[in-house]
Specification:
- Pfam families: UreD.
- The protein has 1 helix and 19 strands.
- The protein is globular.
- The chain has about 260 residues and is mostly beta strands.
- Strand 18 and strand 19 form a beta hairpin.
Length: about 260
Amino acid sequence: MGSVTGGAAGAAGVRAVARILARPDGRGGTALPVLEGEGPLALRRTRAGGSEAKVMLVGAMSGPLGGDRFTVSAEVAEGARLHVGSAAATLALPGQAKGEARYDVRLTVGAGAELRWLPEQLISVRGSELRMATEVELADGARLTLREEQVLGRAGEEPGRLTSRLTVLVAGRPLLDQELSCGPGAPGGWDGPAVLGGRRALGQLLVVRPQYATRPVEPRLLGEYAALTPLAGPGALVTALAPDALHLRRILDEALRSLG
């Protein structure tokens, strides 16, 4: 089923939740018994091939703004396959409400299931303050492709404050846990040569495959400011810096092709 309802709003900002549940449909495909979005978090099922279901997150309103609280959760049950994307970039904007905005993403993937989480870029607009947290729980044998792209400011604009954390567990064991803060008020050095070096687009591509646990990828450079690194477990991580979103996407797309 699917529904879109209005998110709760008030002096403290908008509260909105989106939920996706994917399960095998018994005919070799994937069903979506839960597809619910509120206010700015509208969900649409789109055409997909094979056994995969595809969902697009469609921004029905501007945001997140200051004080907003957005939560997106997706659960992919054992044997299902789900691809989630977004129709456009997400803009973190300053708002009338004081305080930072929060955007939480919670992903769960069962044994033998696959999730491709490939949203468009997150753009940190001047004057905004956003804390984003992505938490992923994978069962043994789950497959994941997850892309994160962050652009600090629009063209010719200084960024807002952005803090982003990604935590991934496989069968309850940590695979990856990292956090980065950028923009005004972030710890010193975030724009220095040891971190961003003046570049305004940063991204990562996490690929989890069961075979990587015994046959890890070979570490290598993917250009001057990008690298592929094996993780201690069934994962491979690509990290990249670029002058803009277009160059960043090209680097990550090429990395994904190289990983098959």
